[in-house]
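Changelog-linked ticket: magnesium ion example.
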Amino acid sequence: HIRIKNILSEPAVYAGNKLTACGWVKTVRDNKTFGFIELNDGSCFKSIQVVFDDSLNNFSEVSKLGVGASIAVTGVLVESSGSKQPYEIKADSIEICCASTTDYPLQKKRHTNEYLRTIAHLRPRTNTFSAVFRVRSHVSYAIHKFFIDRGFVYVHTPIITASDCEGAGEMFQVTTMDLKNIPKNADGQVDFSNDFFTKQANLTVSGQLSAETFAHAFTDVYTFGPTFRAENSNTARHAAEFWMVEPEIAFAELDDNMKLAEDMLKFIINYVIENAPDELDFFNKFIDDTLIERLQNIVSSDFGHVTYTEAIELLKNSGVKFDYPVKWGMDLQTEHERYISEKIFKKPVFVTDYPKEIKAFYMRINDDNKTVAAMDLLVPGVGEIIGGSQREERLDVLLRRMKEMNLKEEDYWWYLDLRRYGGTKHAGFGLGLERCIMYITGMTNIRDVIPEKTYTGKILD
Ligand code: 4AD
Ligand code: MG
């Protein structure tokens, strides 16, 4: 069978030929002796019109088809006499794969995103979600293309790991122990000796530490896969399970890192502009009418740069009363991040050199001994979409920092080895895939860019 997008984009190639198209019924109209079906297969927004008549041996079943039924139509592509579409399929036979009943939850009207979340298994058949997930596919491909074309090596870092990269204690534990009967040592600690892994194992919060080991062998690497955080997912931009792309580059500093992030994001957006124009038109029409203009501005202008200390001053001088009071040393909240990118810079902006107290142990300490060589990319509408840093490559400084943060040397012996044998200045970052897709589509809730409601926290119960 042939995908509907292919038929509609090159009808002259198929006209007059017999072909088969498979898909789901959007609408059926029947007129006693003939009828029309709008058929969609998810390859594009457009449906193809199918004309059928009572020469079909299953004419009465076909006439009674419900919205959402799956069918395979075989017939000839002919010019259509209707004005709405230039071509249609004149059906010789229609195989009904699976009928659909009148209680099909997707009616021919606009449903709210909140309602559609309750039928997450059916929403990919709507125009909005069809577009979101085609864009998600394009973005993922663009990410691989960007890095592979630049000679990066794609590394599959582990999903189950003993380490907590971010040190934020937001891990989901993985265990074979009976949770109702967890063995304890004499000192009251959990006894992992009979557990599958014999020590605490977690779902990864970030592949960074493993990516660093590979960067010390392949120079430029990236990992791209699912990550998990047991943090409050009850917001419009946090999910318990999300995807992250994490490049790690050796012989590189923070500026190289920011340049890489800016090039990558521009490449992704250009790729979507070129490869998903219909989807972007749709989002521009139904979700955010400034979207396309905004995306074009992003790829054609330079991102902003500001240090954390400067950003705090700008926020203080803004005259705005934020819910969370602005003070040097605080972590930026979404309201601050959005104000900086939406109101002050009006474009993506890198905030650099955060206080060391609010950042992870691996970030390189600056000469002031107060801040670290961190970079977050903040964008209008979403806030932080990238978090990254130059890494601490000096063994003595790293050891001191780990001690300050009560991290055990023996848990990180292999990580420290990278600083003992052929260490390099190196840097990297993580881009949250879902937040990137929100940014490119204009969708405002992370739940509407992930395939299913599972693993997104309480709000969906
Ligand atoms: O800023 P984060 O925590 O950085 C790291 O994990 C680093 N180890 C990355 C690195 O340097 N290799 O997370 C990176 C990005 C965030 O900017 C955000 O886009 C996304 O991951 N992110 C989330 N997305 C959805 N739901 C969550 N709960 C997220 N937590 C982080
Ligand atoms: Mg971050």
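Closing comment: Example verified and attached. The chain has a mean pLDDT of 94. The chain is about 30% helix and 25% strand.
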